[in-house]
Every structure is written in structure tokens, then in C-alpha cells.
Amino acid sequence: MRVRREPAIQIKTAAQLAAMAEAGAAPSFLGYHGFPATICACINDEIVHGIPRTARRLRAGDVVSIDCGAVVDGWHADAALTVPVGTVTAELGRLIATCERALWHGLAAARPGARLGDISHAVERCARAGGPGRPGGKYGIVEDYVGHGIGSEMHMDPPVPNQGRPGRGPVLAEGMALAIEPLLVLGSPGTRLLDDGWTVVTEDGSPAAHFEHTVAITSGGPWVLTAADGGREGFARLAQQPPRELAQSHS
Description:
The chain is of the alpha+beta class. The chain has helices spanning 14-22, 90-108, 116-129, 232-239, 243-250, and strands at 26-27, 39-43, 46-48, 63-72, 75-84, 140-141, 147-149, 156-160, 177-180, 183-185, 191-193, 200-202, 208-210, 213-218, 221-224. The protein is 23% helix and 26% strand. Helix 2 runs antiparallel to helix 3 and helix 3 (116-129) crosses helix 5. The two termini are 33 Å apart.
């Protein structure tokens, strides 16, 4: 998934449909419980399930989150990312970076024999350690919408919260697949559903960030199915974090 980052571009779905068809895939989202689009596109204070509209234009300083699901031979995968449009504030840049880093901490915890709560805790600790650079600042972790199991259906058990205690919850077993998706906001984590019945926004109007990957739990460790390299680059970046920051995120 790619987004042009220049200001004032239209959000469209034709490119995503063409790319899926070329790869032998079909969109998971289109028609799902009546959802009218191939992707979800959220701008600024929109958190999840935004409906792309051709009349809507992005502007410099916006942040846009794109969520895309696809099914190949009966197996689903789900991924999302948030990108800046043009130049954004340093505060928004930190929000995006922290949300992506929290995702990779969660992915790294997806190993056989671990507990589901270990993933949730890894995401939460990273998010808490990377709060906004202002007195008492911390990111809101959205609780109303969480990750999920995935496979022969797009949404399956177990739900994967973005905060929790380590050592709790189901034991992770080889062969499981999970969609891990941190949702962070600059303000309160409270949410509100718009009149379109789909788009979820922050109650206080604060900007949001959303990252997601689908990961398979294997005997050799986490295999990120929605990363072209299986997650090698992302895990390598994680390993290069300063030791103090890494310890804070997993303590």
C-alpha cells in the first residue's frame, strides 16, 4: 500500500483494486457488513473505518491512515499504516513514529508459548514510553477497537487489546495468525461514531495514528505476512533501539 504524500490529492480505491486483482487477491473490506469501499481511509481525528470519498482532498499537515484487507485462496490478511501529508508538526511526527514502533514491539512478542497479554503489554509499554514531549504528556490508547485473530475469516478470536498485563490470556501456539493494530491518539482515547455508521473519530478532535500487520506464529518466531520481507527489516530496526528505550518498552 502506498500513498502519494503531496498536498491536495484525492483518495481513490481503483489502484488498490487493480493491484489486488493482479496478485490474484480480492478485497476483504468491500461489502463486509455493507462497507462500501475497498480500503478504509482516515484523516486527522478519524481513527478507523473511514470511507474514502473522491471529493475529499488531503492538505499539507494532514495525517492519513489507510487500512486494507485482502483474501487469497480463502485466507485473509489485514494491514494499515499512517503517513504525513507534506510537512507535519513534530508532535504529529512523534505520534506516527511511536504507533509504528509499538506495533513492532507487539509483533516481536508473538512467539509460541507466550501469552496474548505479552503482546498487549509490549504495545502498551512502548506507547506509554513514547508520549508527547510536553509535561505530563502521554498518548491515549484506544480501547474500543483492537486487533484480532485472522485466517479463514477476516475477524476471528481472540481479540488482541493494545494494553494489558504480561503472562495473561491464551497461550500463543504455532500456526495461529493475529492482526496486531495499535491505535494511538494525541488526546483522550474516547471515540465517537459518525452518522455514516462507519467512521470512528476521537471524541475530543485530537489526531490519531493506526498501524497494523498480520503475523503468523511459527516455531522460528513471528512471520509478518503483510511485510514483503516477512518482517526482517522491521525487527532489525527494533533491535537497533537504544538499550534504555528497549528496556522501558518491555519492562
